[in-house]
Amino acid sequence: MSGVSRSKSPMGALVVLAILAVGVIAPFFLSRYQIGLATQILIFGMLAMSIDILVGFTGRTSLGHGAIFGASTYVVLYCVTQSGLSPYLAVLLGIATATVLAAIFALLAVRTNGVYFLLLTLALGMIVWGICLRWTQVTGGENGLRGDIRPKALSDYKDFYWFILALAALVTFGIRRFVQSPFGLTLRGIRDSDSRMRSLGYNVPLHLFIGFTMSGFFAGVAGAFYAFFNNFVSPSTVALTQSVESLLMAIIGGVGTLYGSFIGASALIALQNLVSSHTERWQSVLGITFTLIMIFAPEGIVGKFRALREKYANKH
Amino acid sequence: MDRRQFLQSTAAGLAAAGTGLQPMRAMAQGEPIRIGLMAPLTGVIASGGKEMVEGTQFWFEKINYQIAGRKVELIIEDDASNPDTALQKARRLVEQNNVHFLTGNLLANTGLAVANYVKGTGTPYFIPIIAADELTQRGRIPNVIRTAGYSGSAFPRPLADWALKQGYKRIATISQDYTFGHEQCGGFSQVFTEGGGTIVQQFWHPLNTADFSPYLGQIADLKIDALFVMETGADATRFTQQFNSFGLKGKIPLLGAMNMTDQSVIRTMGPEVEGIISAAHFAEGADISATKEFVEAYTKKYEKIPSLYGFSMYSGMMWVSRAIEKLGGKVEDKAALIEAVLKTELTDSPLGKPVKLDAYGNPIYDVYIRKVTKRADGKFWNVPVETYPAVSQFWKYDPEAFMKEPAFSRNYQGVKKS
Amino acid sequence: MSLFQLLNGLTFAALLFVVASGFTLIFGLLRIVNLAHGALYLFGGYIGFTIATKIGSFTLGIVGAMAAVAVMGFALNEGLLRFVRGFELRQVLLSLGVAFVLNDMSLVIWGGDSFTVPIPEELTGGFRVFGTFYPKYRLFVLLMGVLIFIGLWVLINKTRLGALIRAGVDDAEMVEAAGINIQRVFLMTFLLGSALAGMGGVMGGAFLSLYPSADSEILVFSLAIVIIGGRGSLIGVGVGSLMVGLLNTLGQVMFPELAYFVIFGPMAAILAFRPMGLFGKAV
After folding, report:
1. Model pLDDT, residue C254
2. Whether residue B176 is found in the same domain as residue B201
């Protein structure tokens, strides 16, 4: 994994700008429904990218991020529909909740690694799901919470899309800076060898704690604006499936590539929307795709592309 | 509609969208009437979803996919038993496929999510299955109408009245812990306690409870005259099975919510279901020619006795079709369509008697007290034993006064304090 | 807790033990967290149901389901997992993909109705246990759980295969270096673990019934048990099953609103403070 440093080249920057430009003008060419899909892709791309901080840069695979993401969504909907707070304040509270939740997860999880980390985050996510399902007075139980909560300024679907696009660009920039900072380099060191970093005198658990909490913060950002997008939340937003799907997005795109998250999100959401209207067997399609990716391209789409390019460059 | 036709329409939609051009939607009579049907074809209640599709197709095949001279294009989407997916599919149907109206969904949370969405778009949304009280009561959305559906708390009320007549004094309830359960138990408890009965205890358990034995132990010790059970799907199967294996069948009479003894549940079961009492507007074993005709034709085609899901979608779509006929096929005017549906009285449904909607978009039915009975061929079905005519979703209360009371929840069950 | 509720907890624990022991064997030796284990359970249950209703023999149903699911395990191990051998996370995620496919296939084959595996006449009805009526079948499940525990204990502690498995759990490379074909041991374990899932499916299918999503419910319970008990430990899975089974019953009776918390709270605590579980060994 060569990490994100590659796109430091001027070419890389140009490509990023070009993609961003396409993103900005896209609404003029797309239908309302497609803009909705694009918005969704951006939101889930942010979530997948927050997971990539952990998977790609600390070597810890989380199956609890759906719960962190959804907790933020729940808080935003609760604050606006039940407590009558302003949606902007609600977003801040939602992100804060997700960050605190991630910190709690992190406290429990930093001592583990590998499969145990995966299982622990899965269990913690299950607890959050259980609470959302059973604490009916607050969460609305199985039926969830709903209401028209998106602020007036963003009520137009195109404006909302541009807003989310800008947000996604900002989040991507933020995460990139984070993983390329000296702190991020230490995280990569931990990914490659826990014990070496320990013997070099680094406080590994503290680094992981901060990394996890940051990751939760970004997941919370995505979750808060998902509340604006859907105007609705139910336990399925915090369920294991949500964690699994967002992890899939990060993996399909390419672990440790950051940008890949958006590609993974596009692939998965396209699959769900297009395949599912042609066949009821979309779950099989999803499962088979995932199995094949694990066997043939575990580095994901972007990772595979980079590997091929490197191979090509080395030959010439 | 077969899959090929379906693919074509999707492909056409995609092609149009791909070039960035919105297809011109002329309001010409030559255009088909586009109907968006959402059903859970995967997930926990996939079998119910499949029957919803069957019931809908069964109706449209009967009228050759033609209403008032216009072709019907049925677009089917899987809501995956998940509200987020349902919402996504509703957006797709409305914004991409430009359907004239939406229908379907099975789980309350999927229906509520879609209802919240159509509140903003004004798209007519017909819900033959979604039973959440609030949609035709406190949280009414004008373009959401329960054609051939029913509200959660409505049918347990006559059942409670019937239970009082049997001389039952002490009853406990057990239910899945979510709004649909709260509403059914609430309707039952309210009428039962107002009539002088006592609700001894109420058990709430999570959806998909694998093992009911902890509850059964407590129920056996309660010394009750009967038990009101509100279970759907696999929980209903398991509860009845385990109730029987713990030797409680025959000792404590079971009164069930209609889902409890629906064909979708009892068709895979045996003698343990016999004798369970429930209340509903539809009884597949009713001795009424319209019902018999429907049940026979449906059984012949799909090789199973129709469940609530098949029946409700069939009748719900019949209702909307009759209204569209009155409009001469003009489905483009949303307000007129809603108005027409509200005013339509359904006369030729499998129920065999006329049904109309109240001012809140909820049907008023004659409600049967039904008993699960063995047929000559060994299968089980629900046979009416008594009828309560013209039951309103507000029972005998004044609607305005009723809606001032809190909605049913775990903590508010309308129990009269004695 | 009354005797009745204790029995409820124990019988549920016995079923969980059957399923989770297969899970932990595979996890312990092959280092694979097989997230398709729940799907194998459900498949096994459906196959057992089909055999038991068509042929009318519960025993044949169990045997058939075990054999069929073992074959599926063989295909999974030899056909797919082989390609990702040694990559822990890829294995986990691959098995998840397989679980998606298997669940969808069972929906295609058996539809989404809930089925209950018919039980033999001798096991219907119940006994009076100290004044409380208790179903025979559930006591049978309890007995089976105990028998399988003993069987596995003997297998692991008294046989050559067991010795290899034990050695393999501690250090697979050492076993290989000693000239043993560890791959065959792996395969045997995988088959055994899968067969146990299939058996659990039939046993569970007779009183918990079979329906879509039953797979993930049982999987989550199995995960909790293995996390509590520790990787590859038979005692651990026994203790874990008892804890989860009893906590589940206790939770439903005493804290219905916290039903999930009662199971996953202790599990998270154990994992946080003893990451390897109560009886797991550090790798």
Report:
1. 80
2. yes
User: Would residue B398 count as lying in a domain?
Assistant: yes
Nearest residue of B to residue C204, measured between CA atoms: B210
**Same structural domain, B204 and B247:** yes
DSSP summary character for residue B355? B
Question: Chain B: residue nearest A131 by CA?
Answer: B206
> Is A147–B116 a contact, with Cβ atoms under 8 angstroms apart?
yes
Cβ separation A119–C33 shorter than 8 A: yes
The answer to whether A234 contacts B17, with C-beta atoms less than 8 Å apart, is: no
State both tokens at B67: 């209403």
Alpha-carbon radius of gyration of chain C: 18
Q: Are B18 and B94 found together in one domain? A: yes
Residue B22 and residue A33: Cβ atoms within 8 Å? no
To the nearest 10 degrees (0 to 180), the angle between helices C58-75 and C182-207 is 140
CA distance B159 to A274: 46
Report the candidate in A276, A193, A259, A284 with the shortest Cα–Cα distance to residue A23: A259
* Residue B251 and residue B296 in one domain: no
Q: Which two tokens stand for residue B156?
A: 């347990």
Q: Is residue B360 part of a domain?
A: no
Verify that B66 and B194 share a domain, yes or no: no
CB A164 within 8 A of CB A42: yes
Task: Give domain limits for chain A.
Answer: 3-315
- For B315, phi then psi, to 5°, come to -70, -35
Of B147, B140, B144, the C-alpha closest to B122 is B144
Same domain, residue pair B8 and B106: yes
- As a whole number, the mean pLDDT across chain C is 88
Residue count of chain B: 418
**Side chain identity at A81, as an amino acid letter?**
T
Give me B342's structure tokens. Answer: 């509200």
Share of chain B above pLDDT 90, in %: 77
Is the pLDDT at B205 greater than 90, yes or no?
A: no
Residues comprising chain C, all counted:
283
Interface of B with A in 326-345 (CB under 8 A): none
Using one digit for the tens of pLDDT, what is the confidence trace for A255-280? 888 989 999 999 999 888 877 777 77
Task: Determine the residue among A22, A28, A31, A40 to mutate to test chain B binding: the one whose Cβ has the most chain B Cβ atoms within 10 Å.
Answer: A31
Query: Which residues from A are below 8 Å from B80, CB to CB?
Result: 276
pLDDT of residue B21: 38
Assess whether pLDDT exceeds 80 at residue B45. Answer: yes
Instruction: Tell me which chain A residues have a C-beta less than 8 angstroms from the C-beta of C94.
Output: 290-291, 294-295
* CATH number of the structural domain spanning residue B399: 3.40.50.2300
Give me the number of domains chain B comprises.
2
Show residues of chain B in contact with A232, CB under 8 Å: 83-84, 87, 112-113, 116-117
Quick one: B45 and B76 in the same domain?
Answer: yes
Q: Please check whether residues B306 and B373 belong to one and the same domain.
A: no
Do the strands B363-374 and B125-126 form a parallel or antiparallel pair, or are they unpaired?
Answer: unpaired
Would residue B222 count as lying in a domain? yes
> ∠ CA C166-C64-B268 to the nearest 5 degrees?
125
Residue A267, min C-alpha distance to chain B (Å): 16
| pLDDT digit string, tens, across residues A28-38 | 999 899 999 99
CATH top-level class of A3-315:
mainly alpha
- Look at residue A160 and tell me whether its pLDDT is greater than 70: yes
Domain hosting residue B11, numbered range:
3-151+290-352
Average predicted confidence (pLDDT) for chain B: 90
pTM, two decimal places: 0.87
Measured CB to CB, residues of chain C less than 8 Å from chain B are 2, 4-5, 8, 11-12, 104, 107, 111-116, 124-126, 132-135, 137-138, 207-209, 211-214, 217-218, 248-249, 252-253, 256, 259-260
Contacts of A12 by beta carbon, 8 Å cutoff, 6+ apart: A6
Contacts of C107 in chain B (CB under 8 A): 42, 46
Angle (CA) B134 B137 B143, round 5°? 85
